[in-house]
Amino acid sequence: MSDMQPSKRRFARRQKRWFFPVMAVLIGLAPVILFELGLRVIDWQPQIVLRDPFVDFQNVRPLFVRSEDGQNWGTAENRLEYFQPESFAATKPPDEYRIVCLGGSTVQGRPYSIETSFTTWLELSLQAADPAKQWKVINCGGVSYASYRLVPILEEMLQHEPDLIVVATGHNEFLEDRSYAGIKQLPDSVAGAYRGISQLRVTQWVHGLAAPASESSSDQDSDVTSRNMMTTEVDALLDYRGGLAKYHRDDDWQQSVVMHFGYNLRRIIEMAKSAAVPILLVDLPVNLRDCPPFKSEDTAAVSDADRQRCEELVTEARERFSLDRRKAIEKLELAVDINPRHAGLHYQLGLLYFDDQQFVKAKQHFQIAVDEDICPLRMVSPIRERLRQVAAITDTPLVPSRQRFEMQSKGGIPGQNWLLDHVHPTIPGHQSIAAELMSTLEAMEVVSPRDDWQVERERRYQAHWETLTPVYFERGKQRLEGLRLWSEGRAKKLRGDVKGVQDSP
């Protein structure tokens, strides 16, 4: 007992040492905590700042204009290079449920068009599930449109009484050249803490007070010069001859692009929620198995001797493949160890693992091949992770289309079975995305399907399919070939050309 008394006294002294400092901090934070609770009780919402601190546009043109008779809104003629013709009623019918879908060419339905996009299959599905309601799905998919170009479109579409916003983006973030020289990257731990603090209503309230003053200060001029002035429409690097050569490994730039993507998603979600419109995000699939990297570069530290050794190992792997697949895998594993950031080596190793039925390892190397692709035309892991983070932080539903494609693919690795090229789904693939959206909408109680509604859906699908002409599919094949040439850097447009926009994602 006598031995325990000193230890108790020491514990009591330690308690006193940290108790009073902790109490002092809590007392100091009490007003902030109470103010935060008060703002939440009254449901105070910050004013949404539409201005992008990283990019600006030379001009923003409306996507939709009124028809001559004033009865409808239709795609503006000067936007038809990047968008397909679409229309909706100027006066929204009382029983209409209006869904606006934003994104790139995947939303548009490339290499085909809106007629076989998931937006059309979704509308047909909703009509079959609940014909008592008038369903309208508006396709706002723009060729090569990245997240920062979707913000002005959403701002416009919120004026047209949407009931739901669907955003499917993430493939096009690296298409246009822009600088982030003034942005400093923060460690993940610091960035995470900053994101948490920035979500406090108190922080947003103080920022709202300071914003008018900062905008009127002399900092405004320097801010404008630090932002990228983007062309009115997309100006993708691959739209020009030799565009592929412009891509080089730049980890800092990629991190800044990922940060900008997350910022754009947050703005899009905040805009929708501020307008009291529900919003969904879509986790888009990519072609892992049947699409090699568009450009590979050696790891920075690789010497000429290492590079030569890698070439020898690749040659040996090819020679041994038909005789001893495991030995071929070992050769390529050695090459990857020597040159770990070479996207092409990872892709070849993924193919060997896939043929050997080692699907977990195959998927791992296929994904590394996507992430290390010097010309990232497919959603890379950091972009997808930021998509998940933003969805979780903002409590926004994330439609698991990618997972659905994986479940329906051998070894969980999507390829040409569901995608026509690197990112564009087949027509059954679009129907699969529509089915996943239907499941999400049913879970949200947006739609309550009647019994055996799938039978009616298939009937509507078939009736719609019969309206599509051979010319429609032939044009799709031509666009697909154009996409292939574009992704290989074989565009013919020269800098300074006014016309000649290439097909792109």
Automatic annotation (TrEMBL):
Signal peptide: none annotated. InterPro entries: Ester_Hydrolysis_Enzymes, SGNH_hydro_sf, TPR-like_helical_dom_sf. SUPFAM superfamilies: SGNH hydrolase (SSF52266), TPR-like (SSF48452). This is Tetratricopeptide repeat protein.
